Fold this sequence. Notes:
111 residues; four-stranded mixed β-sheet; 2 helices
Amino acid sequence: MSEFGEKFTISNTENIPGRQVTEFYGIVTGSTVRAKHIGKDILAGLKNLVGGELKGYTELLGEARQEALRRMIAEAESMGANAVVNVRFSTSSIAQGAAELFAYGTAVRVE
């Protein structure tokens, strides 16, 4: 089950073990574009010199991933789906210091 509740299921596989797809609604998407904070960017530049995890960016990507999933789920629910299968993520650079995180999958109803 997802962090979005027992009522809605998200899976990166084509099916959900023990459940049967009874309706197919089509592709659903969710995205968000996030910009880096100048302070985090400076700290990340310093961290690049010594190595290690860029925690500010890790947090930013985690927040972006959750927002993209929320938007994808909202689209799926508006169609009548109670699950999204075959979920994938993609990222792309939009502008200097800004990136899009895109989530997509197939909205279905499972029993």
